Amino acid sequence: MSYHIQDYSALDGGPLEYSNGMQLPNYSNGIALVEEYSLLQSILVDGGTHFGVSTVCFDSFEELLWMGNQGGHMTSYSSAELHKYTSFQVHVSNEVRAIVPHDAGMLSLTSNSLRMSARRGLPIFSHCSEQIQNMQCMVLTPTGNLLMGGHHKNLIELDLNTLEEINVVQVNSDNCAILRKHPRFICSGDINGKVTLHDPNTLSVEHTIDCHTGMLSDFDVHGNQLVTCGFSARRGELSVDQFLKVYDLRVMKSMSPIPMMFPPLLLRFVPAYSSRLCVVSQTGQFQMVDTDNSDQYAFFIHQVETGGADILTFDTSSSCQAFAFGDAAGYLHLYGASNEVQFNQFNRPTEFADSVEPFQPIDINDEITPLSMVSMPHCEDKLLSDLPPEFCQVVYRPTPPVDPLILNSMKMVRSIGYAPNPGNRRRNQVPYQLDNNQLDSPVSRDDGPDLVPNRYLKQEIKYTKMGLDEIDFNRFNQTSFSGLEANLPNSYCNNMLQILYFIEPLRSALLSHLCQREFCLSCELGFLFHMLDTAEGLPCQAANFLRAFRTIPEASAHGLIINDLNESKKKENLPTLVQSWSRFMLQQLNAETADVNDHISEENGSETTSIMTSLFGAKLFSCNSCRCRTETCQETTTLLTQLLYPEKTSTLLPFLDILQRSLSVKQHITAWCDNCRRFTSMTQTKFLKSLPDILVLNCGESKPEIEFLKSQLKLLYESSDSSIKTLPDFPVLRKKQCRYGSICRRTDCRYYHEHRNNKNTQELPQPNQSWMPLGFKLKIKGGEVIVEDCSNAPEKKEEPDTVEENSESAEYELFAVVSVITDLQENGRDNIVSCIRVGPIGHVRHKGGAAYQWYLFNDFSIVGITPQEAAYLNHEWKIPCVLYYARKDVNNKHDLQVLNPVGQQVFREDVSLAARSGQSHITFTPLSIDEEHVLPTGQLVAMDAEFVTLNQEEAEIRSDGTRSTIRPSQMSVARISCVRG
């Protein structure tokens, strides 16, 4: 068992990585008697999106909690509610490694500087010298001076009044990573596993204790006890000590070690109890341990919810009522013994800024309060309302024209005219002429581009007493392909299974696959593909595949098993669900087919590769370069590619630029260097050494990636005409011809009639602009992947002389798109659809013409669409999740012949349930070996089957007493018997 330690600048809480993924026991059932501490607050600190929390410290003078991050920033929080008090930058780039509270301010230590800041954030002084290099820890001495240590041989004592280094003492070891204060000693610990006790006045060495043979992780001292945790050197590697070592400072001897249920990383004594301390693991578990009582199982094991991030630092309050944890994800977690905790028993008041006097609110319907009650803002420039006089003029309302009926009947008496009311207008009614009578939008609301077409929405059918037998699926599918029913749990993957079905090499390989495993997804996919071949347009059920899918532990671990209880989880994050399912299926099918190929290669003595590796696999070369010119390179096989997006931008980025950025990755990471013996910044370079036959692209599953993708689609939507253009209402190589031809008199005939549909064969609309291309070209040249756009370029056949040496190129075409559809009119009804480009082989297999055609698969609904609609995306309701690009010659590179995997041995099995029940009498004669060769082709046999009900029918009774079926019963085959004459 090997452990890798990440940046052992270390003992300030550097995270540890366990390469073998140690599994800790599950304490959710509770082995403790009571839960002592509970989570009070968990917040994202300033700069937490980029840097982790490197150190935390409770202020011993005021009710404040301080933290420093790896970017050199400090933030303080007031009281247990963690209200932000101050936030300021300590160093431009170096991380804050230690914080010590002082009466005059807060001391913060970086690798090469010391700074004291007032609690309001103003700097008091900064100190740098030649001795202060690669510092790590500090502590206040009883005389009021500051003692500092680091990864060098010197202990530096600094007078805080004069800022002079009054004493520099060399330590026995090469470093000092931890400093602790004790009434009798100053304790220092190094990374070699030793703890040294110094005289607090002269700093001379009094005692040295060898605690761990490998490395010291943390220690604390209280009273007469010293407790440590760390690592031991075993067989040349570091191994974590899963126990605490206890030493008695009175006799300088070790006591009985305390075993732990998890690998300890950090520990602190709880001041209120002389013999109790808190122990923390890297994964966020912590437990109260009594050094006088080795039965630590009586204490509850708490779990800090870090979301998978490592715990970097930890501190306890002087009142022992609160614990603070900082993790690598930039979160600060506060645990308390009660809902209202105090950090210190006696606090001095914290100075806050003067509060702004609030204005008396004025109701919007108040007609009495003058507007002068609202004070004017203080500004030196002129107000925007101060217009010059030349811009202002008095404008009166024009006199409306008099009705001609009134003028004709008016009688003048001197200067006054009188006329009767014509009665053509109601009282107080005045005509009002609109300046613009046009609609807000030239597109009607019914067929606007922002409304989701019905073929993309989740299809619902009403069941009858006969179940699915009386449902006319021709309303949803007028093609010869078969859809999949969506009434089973986890049927969200139906449309993604259709993509695997139309990959011809994969379909042929899975139809030829058969193994002895009880739950094999490859076998179940082969059976499902056989049903889709023979169903002739009727919908099928993927019940057997989904049953085997639920038994895979990895599928449940990735959150791919969705039941009725967590149905809302699926609706909230469908893009993550789709991409996780695609990644899992490729890896699972690769593992299952590779096992069978390994067995065949052992028998034949030859090397074989799985169909998944030959189809989706690409050799990925990865190289990590350190500053010391050490390079670590390795070559792996990847089955899919994750698109890497840049930071959020307001410009439209081409898809091919993002693809080339994702295939040739150059980034800066932090990794372990064997030459430097520490974690350091490295330059990682990744590029493809071979091209896959089918390129699978994940479009991004995190929230920032989805937001970036939506912003790009919105920019494209605003810059072009993105109205959907679909196929006309006539079948393009997808409907069956009517057997009666032109003499058919049925007006509602669902088959194709040439004389009726010729009028709809108008020219298709021109392609609209799409973010992703319908095709491109990949070329590997000199370790660099080059992406070229060839969707609109004419095909050029390269001459043999013009082909460059040491280069590989391939042209790819868009084969399938998996998208998440958002219902804009009803929340919670998001859907997953697939657009698939079916080739000539798929059409001929289903009795169609040899041509290419795009189809929209929505469970049992299958509709033909144009290539432009398949590539169409919309930032409001159609977001792509997974893209499949296939080589143009992918079918020519693989064997598409299907071999029957069922041998003759299955006919010789004489399995009988009656024999198991104790009945030795068998009423049938099993098929013998001699009879296998004499059975003629076409001989009639009788078959019998029994079925069992897995799930009962779900129905509801309406208020009028009628019964409505919500979900039909689910049945499965239990026995199949074949009887010969």
From TrEMBL:
The protein's name in its UniProt record: PAN2-PAN3 deadenylation complex catalytic subunit PAN2
Cite the PROSITE patterns for this sequence: USP_3 (PS50235)
Single GO term (MF): poly(A)-specific ribonuclease activity
Q: Tell me the ranges covered by the USP domain, including all copies.
A: 482-888
GO biological process terms, alphabetically, are: nuclear-transcribed mRNA poly(A) tail shortening
Quote the InterPro entries the UniProt record gives: PAN2-PAN3_catalytic_subunit (IPR050785), PAN2_N (IPR048841), PAN2_UCH_dom (IPR028881), Papain-like_cys_pep_sf (IPR038765), USP (IPR028889), WD40/YVTN_repeat-like_dom_sf (IPR015943), WD40_repeat_dom_sf (IPR036322)
| A GO term from the CC aspect | P-body
Provide the gene name from the record.
PAN2_3
Superkingdom of this entry's organism? Eukaryota
